[in-house]
Every structure is written in C-alpha cells, then in structure tokens.
C-alpha cells in the first residue's frame, strides 16, 4: 500500500509540475501578445466569453486568466463590466484539460518529453526554448497521468482505501472534498483531471459496485467553487473594482452550484443518462460533465451579468479612507503581496509610472506658477507630493528588480530595462520641479522682480516643456513610436529657445533691466526646462528595446 500511495503522489506531483511548467512557459513565450488580444476583445461580452475560453484553453489555466483579469481591472485598463465575459469564458476554457486527460495520450508521453528535452538542450534561441519548455511540460503532464493510472488500478485491491472513497457518495462530502482539493492545488483543471482518472480506474463506485456518476457530478461542483481561490487571493490587496471582479467570479460558481444542485435533486437520473449516452466511457463522462456544467452556467448567467455587476457594487462599496491615496503612500496598481501573474507585471508598472508622471506634472505646473506668476500657496503641496513621487520611484524600482522571479513574457522582459530608465527620468523631472519651487520661494523672500520680457519667455518655454512632456508620456504609455517625430521636433524648439532666452537675458542684464540675483534664477530656470525636455525625450524612447 505504501508503494502505491508513493507512486500516486509522485504521479500527482509530476502532473502538477507539467501543468505549471507548460502554463508558465506558454505565458512567457506569448503572454505579451495574448494580453493585448485579451484586452482588445472585451468590448462585447459575448466576444469576451469566446476570447476568455480560447485564451484559457491555450494557457491551460483559468486561475492564470482570472488573476490576469483582476490585474487588468486593478490597473484600470479593463472595466468591471468588460471583465465579466472573460470570467465566464475562462470557466469554459479550463475544461479543455480534463478533455485531454480523458483521451489516450499517455503512451506518447515519453516521446513528447524527449522532443522537449532535446530542443531545450541544444537550441539557443529564447523563443524556441520557451516552445520546447511547453512541449516538455505537456509530456510531463501525461507521464504523471500514466503513473497515477497505474497506482489507481492497484488501489482497487485495498479495501481500506476504497472505503475512504465511498464517502464521496454523500453529496455534501463530495462537494467539500472537491472544493478543498481545488483550493489546495489552485486549479479546477487538475482536480477534474484527477477525478477523470479516479472514475476511469473504477475507484468511485456506489454500493452496487458501479461507477457513482452522481458523486462525480457533485465533486465537479465543489471543484468549481474552489477554482475561485486564485482570483480571491489576487484581489485581496487590490482596489474595489478588482475585488468586485473576484466577487463576480465567486457568484458565477456559487449560483451555478445552487442551480445545478437543485436540478440534480429532481432530475439526476435523466442528466446522468444523457451525459452517459454522449460519452461512452467513465473518463469521457467526467470530462463532458465538467464542460456541460460550465457551458450551462454561462448560458443562464450571461444574460444576467449586469445584475451580478450591480450586486458586486452593492456588496463591495467604498469605505472611508479607501480613496485617500494622496494622503497615504501606497502602490495603487501593483499588488505586491497578492498573487502575481507574469503577464500583468509590466501592465501594473506602466500604470504606476503614469500615475507618478501625473504627480510630477502637477508639481511642475504649480512650481512654475509660483515662480512666474507669484502664486505661492501650493508650495507645501509640492514638497509633500515630491515625497510621494520619491516613494513611488523607490517602490516601483524595487518591484521591477524582483519581477524576474515571475517568469515574464519575452516581450515584457525586453521592455523592463526601458521601464527602469523611465522611472529614473520621471523622478528627475520631479526633482527639477522642486528646484523651481525653491527658486520661487527665493524670489518671494528676496523680493526679486523679473522683466516683462523675461516672464513672457519663461511662460513660452514652460508651455513647450509641458507639450513635450505630455507627448512623451503618451508615447510611453501607448508604446506609439509614431510620436517620436513630434517629440524630436519639440526638443529642437526648446533647445533653440534656451539659446534665445540666454542671449536675451544677457542683453537685459547689460541694459540694467534685471538684477544679478533674478538673472541667476532666470538662467537656472531656463537650463532646468531644457533638461526636463531631455528627460522627456528619454521617457519616450524608453519603449525601444535596448541594444545588446
């Protein structure tokens, strides 16, 4: 018995490894492109269902899809309403794993592993290595199935273990076991796949010695509830809408459990017979039942999706202090302590950098208004905001340093270097804004006066600096290289304005139109604006891959 249990656990471990390795490799190889497709296909909830199903079927993980979805909602690039279709579709797509397990693919598992290992060993190209890793994981998955199948056939001869499985005839126990097992392994695909093997090996039987199909159905319902755990964990430290996304996912499965449970109470035999008719084998019965249940849930709940969204807003409402990010230094779009999906790491970082850039722009405007227009009332806010900017710079950089452990998609890994530089450049512009406010307070304390011409030149240069800054951030966020030309044009204008301002300043100094002290502040401002423009150019061009 000890050897059988060891073989069973070893097979399960190999199965879990294969599933995780394959899913992570798929996301690493194509996660960037898949993320873009997923985000573009959410405008229509029916298209979103199809997209969510196909996406999940491809990456073999509804948990990864929902975690990614929660990350998108948390980052503000996907609305709560848009996420619903993805949630429903992901539940359907996850059934592809059990369908594959129900097929006889175990015989070719060693050959698949050999192909994957050979490419991994001799191929140098990163993309091919990722594809090879997917192949290797796929083979390991089915090799684990082979081990578990052999062990399960031996368990049939051990009465003590068979008695334990007999408790699954109780619907409540079957639901609870399915829920707990799925919560532990973090995948309903794995749970249902194990159930496929149990049913196919004749382990789950009734008192008559026949396969207990009803116990299998309740076990599947429990697994569906347990599949909500990754989304719930991912949303724990996220914003309200991300929490609502997880709530919709939970309600989708809970309502499905209740409705299907009621149907089974009154029509268990016809349902079992119908699924059995189209299945043929016990393995196919479990796999098909899982798919049918998920499709049925989607059909009955998709028309009511707006009601689920409204319910989520009622249950998860705003709490006092939740929106006071300006008063409490927090990362808004990066969930450091939650479940991180590789494909959402860069998304969150870009959103945080954009938020940081917005703060810098406010500081730049208020500091310039203080110096040029003598509006000093916001000085305290500028210095306070600068502390927040420094906090974000430090925490974003720290997060990116640790991001390599997430196994980022190749495209995102290439962009990571540019993001490091962008954070530095945005923070440096923030420093220049503070320097301008320092000069403004010096102007106030020393009662300096600028000439009318000088103020006009400063105002004109400020307008151009804001224009290049806005364009640079737009290029950075949207990864739009078509904006490079405009950025370069504005930089040339600002460079020339710096020269013109300095020459005009020298003439005014010679004519005695301004003091030496005000002249130094003027020069400092002009040079600062020109350097801000340089940093803006760096931000825009940070989207280009680094030369190696």
Q: Please, what is the average pLDDT?
A: 82
Task: Name the assembly state.
Answer: single chain
Shape: elongated
Q: Please tell me the total number of domains.
A: 2
Q: Indicate the low-confidence ranges by residue numbers.
A: 320-327
Order of helices and strands: HHHHHHHHHHHHHHHHHHHHH
Strand content: under 5%
**Helix content range:** over 70%
Q: What is the terminal-to-terminal distance?
A: 57 Å
Tally of strands:
0
Main sheet characteristics: none
Q: Helical element count?
A: 21
Q: SS-based structural class?
A: mainly alpha
C-alpha Rg (nearest Å): 30 Å
What does this structure look like?
By secondary structure, this protein is mainly alpha-helical. It has 2 domains: 2-315, no CATH class; 342-541, Methane Monooxygenase Hydroxylase, Chain G, domain 1, CATH 1.20.58.220. Helices cover 79% and strands 0% of the residues. The chain is built from 21 helices and no strands. The protein has helices at 2-40, 45-59, 62-75, 80-93, 96-101, 109-122, 126-155, 159-166, 171-185, 188-200, 213-226, 229-235, 240-279, 282-301, 305-315, 342-373, 379-402, 410-445, 452-478, 484-510, 516-541. Helix 9 packs across helix 11 and helix 11 packs across helix 14. The longest helix is centred in the middle third of the chain and has 40 residues, at 240-279. It is elongated, with a radius of gyration of 30 Å. 49% of the residues are buried.
